[in-house]
Design a protein that fits this description.
The chain contains eleven helices and six strands. The protein is α+β, with helices and mostly antiparallel strands. The protein has two domains: 187 residues, no CATH class; 51 residues, no CATH class.
Length: 324
Amino acid sequence: MNTVMQKADNTNLTFGSYGDIETLSKRIKLMVKGGDKLTPNEAMALAQVASVTHLNPFIGEVWYIPGKGPMVGIAGARRLEQERTSGQGGYSWPIVTPCAPEEAGATEIEIKDVVAAFKVEINNSAATADYQRLFSATLEAVRGAGVADPFAAAKEICGPRPVWVGYGYSKKTDQSTMNKMQLARKRAEADALKKCIVIPFGAQVADTEVSPAYLDVQATDIKVTRTEADNMRELGIQTGAPEWEGTPEEWETEPPKQQAENPDPIDDKAWDKWLALCHRAEKVDVRYALVDRKNTTKSDLRAGYNELLQFVKDAEQQAKGQPA
């Protein structure tokens, strides 16, 4: 039986001379936005990572966050993955689909706060071609051995087709300049890319495409604004006398809490369009995130609508192309 194996990636590193790294670090401090806030050692670390990975710190492919270390943006991680697969004689592409918050890893406490959740599968044509050759050779061998179900046997021997899967979700409380749909997609893609590429010096893949400005953060004293009674009441434990007057029956129910008003509420027309699209999605078996109309803004719904619409159109097109 012929065995097909995928070669390991070349992990040889070119570190560069100390003088080259030092020169690059000085340029980073001078020319990168916020670079002057980096210490010389931090700028040197960023320059070293940029030199080894060939990522460009001047266009935000890689940056350094004090206290965390070097960070590779999604744009930089995509390029590393594309260069890796190109070196294997292939190419890669992501498949993005909505998924349930539970599948994306949200906890029971977080689920009610989740706005969107996505699953990203990164495919590698070279790895897929190697797998197909291995599977074909294995299938031929088990057929020749007279196995009753050769396809199932070959599948068990070869395992699943190589694919790198990542998950991501966003919550109402997330602070980001991106809308919640984009944030969830970027997190899912970053999670998948982390499994595809090897980044030296412990650099991490960030869930954004551009580097943030380096901010000066001054330490401040944390003032406690909650009392022990507040904590006990939130846990459902009543201590001491009630905080409002009234009959005992009125004490059994807490006064209604004022909720922040939605600054961009979803009107009936937009909601009906969303429901109609969800109905189309169900017909072609496309999963979508559940939307809390009361707390979701119209702009976030519009972004989610456009994302889902593309998936639905693709699925409907594929369904039309299938033979009856």
